[in-house]
Write a structure and sequence with these properties.
Number of helices: 5
CATH topology: Rossmann fold
Distance between the termini: 9 Å
Order of helices and strands: EHEHEHEEHHEEEE
Shape: globular
CATH architecture: 3-Layer(aba) Sandwich
CATH class: Alpha Beta
Helix content: 25-40%
Number of strands: 9
Number of domains: 1
Strand order of the largest sheet: 1-9-8-7-6-5-4-2-3
Radius of gyration: 16 Å
Strand content: 25-35%
């Protein structure tokens, strides 16, 4: 079975420090800050706001109709997570991780409220510890799971696939 529950691993000092930072931010109830481009539906924006997120839209900053590169630059300048339904942002040649804000590309399937809620399952990280989602992360989220592609401070990159199955998060395990 390719999906498995995450195994507990030995924690390094850096992992413990990061965990302490996460606990501190959870205690302070930091809110995730999103920048929604024009391809992100209004119903999804309202749903994020009901969940407690701070959502700024392209209409709010008068950038409607601007090219995608301008939206990435604006999200990076504002320190916000760019959230969209435009799959063009997944092109690493056009939008390399090193030059991008944190990106979440959503595929809502049929666009129903239930599909949106299932797609938003990937937002546990940004809602729990938003300080770690300022740049160098791309998340492609569907109603069935999500893929996280991240660049780390040491220059390495990683890609992880997840899904929610029977109420528990599972990570894809390679053979």
């Amino acid at each position: 079975m390719p999906y498995a529950l995450g195994e507990s691993r030995r924690r390094s000092r850096a992992d413990r420090t990061r965990k302490e930072q996460v606990i501190d931010y959870v205690r302070r109830r930091a809110k995730p800050r999103f920048y929604a481009d024009e391809n992100f539906p209004g119903a999804a924006i309202r749903m994020l706001k009901r969940l407690g997120a701070d959502v700024l839209t392209v209409r709010d900053v008068r950038r409607h109709g601007h090219p995608d590169e301008n939206h990435t630059a604006e999200a990076l300048r504002l320190g916000r997570i760019l959230i969209t339904c435009d799959r063009d942002y997944l092109d690493n040649r056009r939008f390399p991780l090193i030059h991008c804000p944190a990106l979440i590309v959503c595929d809502f399937g049929s666009g129903t409220a239930e599909d949106m809620q299932r797609t938003f399952a990937c937002l546990g990280g940004p809602f729990t510890a938003p300080q770690f989602f300022d740049k160098w992360t791309k998340i492609y989220a569907t109603r069935d799971g999500w893929t996280e592609h991240a660049r780390h401070l040491d220059g390495t990159t990683s890609r992880h696939r997840y899904r929610i199955y029977r109420g528990r998060m599972q990570e894809w395990q390679s053979d």
